[in-house]
């Protein structure tokens, strides 16, 4: 299995590809994440052109319910879950086509 690229490796690759300092690239990357978080909180969506669209999905609360453990077959009770927000990333068409 391939290893995941770290933040410092990403900064280094972008800096080399664009002949910029790592410090400048790190600043841009941090600004992008800060703006993204603010937009998600304010509007519920954030688009990174050519990459992905991030969307906040509101999950409603669920009640406790009875069910069966699929591994043992024993009856059990599933706990109630509070309402929550989840962030989903949806790749844009260009990203899908690149893979």
- Secondary-structure element string: HHEEEEEH
End-to-end CA span: 17 Å
What is the level-2 CATH architecture name of the largest domain? Irregular
- Helix share of residues? 40-55%
Helices, by number, come to 3
> Could you say which structural class the secondary elements and strand pairing correspond to?
alpha+beta
Shape: elongated
Which CATH first-tier class of the largest domain would you pick?
Answer: Few Secondary Structures
Q: CATH homologous superfamily name of the largest domain?
A: IHF-like DNA-binding proteins
The overall number of domains is 2
CATH topology of the largest domain: HU Protein, Chain A
Return residue spans where pLDDT drops below 50 for at least 5 consecutive residues: none
Strand order of the largest sheet: 1-2-5
Give the overall average pLDDT.
Answer: 94
Topology, number of strands: 5
| Major pleated sheet | 3 strands, antiparallel
Pfam families: Bac_DNA_binding
Organism: Afipia felis (Cat scratch disease bacillus)
GO cellular component, one term: cytosol
Subcellular location: Virion
Write up what this structure looks like.
- The structure is a single chain.
- With 99 residues, the chain is α+β, with helices and mostly antiparallel strands.
- The chain has two domains: 1-43; 44-99, HU Protein, Chain A (Irregular).
- It has helices spanning 7-18, 22-43, 93-98; strands at residues 45-48, 52-59, 65-68, 75-78, 84-91.
């Amino acid at each position: 299995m391939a290893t995941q690229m770290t933040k410092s490796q990403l900064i280094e690759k972008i800096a080399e590809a664009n002949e910029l300092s790592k410090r400048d690239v790190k600043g841009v990357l941090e600004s992008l994440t800060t703006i993204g978080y603010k937009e998600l909180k304010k509007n519920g969506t954030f688009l990174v052109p050519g990459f992905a669209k991030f969307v906040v999905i509101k999950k409603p609360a669920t009640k406790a319910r009875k069910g069966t453990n699929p591994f043992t077959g024993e009856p059990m009770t599933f706990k109630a879950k509070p309402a929550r927000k989840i962030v989903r990333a949806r790749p844009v068409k260009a990203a899908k086509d690149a893979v």
